[in-house]
Amino acid sequence: MRIAHVASEAVPIAKTGGLADVVGALAKALGHMGHRVFIVMPLYRQTMNGPIDAEPVMPDIDAGEIRFRIYRKHIGPVDYVLLDAPRLFARPAPYGTSDGDYPDNPIRFAAFARAAILAISTVIGGADVIHCHDWQSALVPLLLGRDPLLGGAMTGTPTILTIHNLSYQGSFEPWAIDAARLPRELFTPEGFELYGTVNYLKGGILTASRLTTVSPRYAREILTPDFGYGLEKVLEARRNRLSGILNGLDTGVWNPSTDPYLARNYSRRDVTRGKRACRAALAAELLLDDDDSPLVAIVSRMAEQKGIDLVAAAIDGIVASGLRIAILGAGDDAVQNEVLEACHRRPGRAAVRIGYDEAHAHRSYAGADLLLMPSRFEPCGLGQMIALRYGTLPVVNAVGGLADTVRDLDTDPTGGNGFRIAQLTPEGISAALRRAAKTVRNPSRLLDARRRAMAENHDWKRPARTYEALYTELLA
Ligand code: ADP
Ligand code: GLC
Fold first, then answer.
1. Phi, psi of 475 (to 5 degrees)
2. Would you state the pLDDT for residue 54?
3. 0.85 exceeded by the pTM?
4. Ligand 1 center from residue 18 Cα (angstroms)
5. Which of 1, 138, 435, 460 is buried most, with the most CB atoms less than 10 Å from its CB?
6. Ramachandran angles phi, psi of 467, nearest 5°
7. Taking 90 as the threshold, does the pLDDT of residue 62 lie above it?
8. DSSP 381-426
9. How far apart are CA 217 and CA 234, in angstroms?
């Protein structure tokens, strides 16, 4: 099959979160299965990992008065098609800065959606299915066959929309319609109108041939008001087209026995020695006390979703329980400051590194005994799967993908692989960590749990086959 993914980020070219990991790794897995796979994404000149070492291909594309130059780059089995419109995408970051989202985002991602459709139809010579991800490409299914500016390109092509995070919807004031040159007649409840605003994700939800989200549990949760972010009724109306497919992990990138960033590589056989060396190195790097107390890590975007504000309030309790904590994260300024302040009060016991740091993330997963993910909601979550692979026991709030992947060791000593937080409060977080620390301090239970965690298989083979089956069904 010819499969075109349309997304706003994908590894190894641009990443702000798990979306990029998933798009890049899924495309690679499908490519290795023998499909012809494309990733169509914006070219972010300033945030690309490395220079554009690709030639532009002809012709340029005109997407509603915005001209895109097209670059192509083959990486492994995947053909990356990079859409370059510097006026819209040469910015310090893909979506916005600490001052907020770019005000012209509706224009940027409407132009991107159009240019993507046109690039698929002309430059790459068509596709059997178009697989879109999140609000940034959610206009693709809506505009296909409905937008006069597209001249009928790719009309009738089956589309899949994967929701990676329902809390980001691409919701704008109605001025966006004319500014982005969207057809006015689509501003209805059957189109992209939601309570008087323009909602790109809603447009995609109503028009994609199939909807998926990134874990079975989240697929059920988003039908409820608590997790639906105002779109639960829209989703309910299309629930027979909606399924949850648990993400995989790129096990080539995330492999403690070959990971180039670690102080010492290790596998299930020598996990105790390996992790001891990695933990000592991580503690030294962060100026944490050099002792044998359990080390908790966090690797996370700092956003409301991730519950890091609760961790800031829990730090005193965590430290009082004899644990050390190492936090890596970037994002919301207010949350960052809370964490910085809490950690500075506890030198030697709590440390934080603000920023996006791939190498340090690898060392955190490897060096920690426990990985803390107190998310308020979590569509899938990759951190807990990475942790398991590194023999690091996840301590999670059991929602979304976290509920689908983490089983509590105290309720299920022979089948468990981590710990579930009973109550999502600062006290609840400290209590779960205290409980987890008991296992960490018990060498035989710890070894048993680590080995079981590391034996789990979260690679992309199974999810990629499930997506393949979905595409096949659409083509039948
Ligand atoms: P989300 O996409 O909601 O941020 P996921 O758990 O799906 O959450 O994916 C997060 C990904 O980003 C993981 O690969 C994680 O290791 C990485 N990550 C998050 N924060 C940082 C950071 N500050 N530095 C490096 N990597 C990070
Ligand atoms: C989103 C979600 C995260 C998920 C990722 C990849 O960023 O917040 O839970 O793992 O997308 O699907």
1. -85, -15
2. 73
3. yes
4. 6
5. 138
6. -65, -40
7. no
8. -SHHHHHHHTT-EEEE---HHHHHH--BTTT-TTT--BEE-SS-SH
9. 18
What would the pLDDT profile of 224-251 be if each residue is shown by its tens digit? Answer: 999 999 999 999 999 999 999 999 999 9
Q: Is the CB of 244 under 6 A from ligand 2?
A: no
Reported as a single tens digit per residue, the pLDDT across 284-337 is 999 999 999 999 999 999 989 999 999 999 999 999 999 999 999 998 999 999
- Confidence at 217, pLDDT banded by 50, 70, 90: very high
Dist. CA 295–CA 323, nearest whole Å: 6
Ligand 2 pocket, mutate which of 382, 386, 397, 467 (most atoms under 8 A from CB): 382
- The reply to whether 331 and 434 lie within a common domain is yes
* C-alpha 34: how far from chain center: 25
Q: What is the mean pLDDT of residues 276-291?
A: 97
For the Cβ of 306 lying below 6 angstroms from any atom of ligand 2, the answer is no
- Model confidence at 368: pLDDT above 80: yes
pLDDT for res 45: 81
* 444: CATH: 3.40.50.2000
Co-location of 433 and 468 in the same domain: no
Query: Per residue in 430-475, pLDDT tens?
Result: 999 999 999 999 999 999 999 999 999 999 999 999 999 999 999 9
Specify the ligand 2 atom closest to the Cα of 218: 9
Residues 222, 341 share a domain: no
- Packing angle between helix 461-475 and helix 18-32, nearest 10 degrees? 70
Closest ligand to the CA of 400: 2
Decide: 330 in ligand 1 pocket, CB within 6 A. Answer: yes
Distance separating alpha carbons of residues 191 and 17, to the nearest angstrom:
29
> For residue 349, what are the β-bridge partners?
none
Q: Which of 211, 380, 384, 458 to mutate to test the pocket of ligand 2 (most atoms within 8 A of CB)?
A: 380
pLDDT at residue 340 tops 60:
yes
Domain residue limits at 372: 271-455
| 206 in the same domain as 277 | no
- Asked if 464 and 445 sit in the same domain, the reply is no
| Ligand 1 atom index nearest CA of 165 | 3
Domain count of the fold of the chain: 2
Same domain, 277 and 157: no
Does the beta carbon of 19 sit less than 6 angstroms from any atom of ligand 2?
yes
Confidence of residue 50 (pLDDT cuts 50, 70, 90): low
Q: The tokens of 148 are what?
A: 């006069």
Residues 310 and 413 in one domain: yes
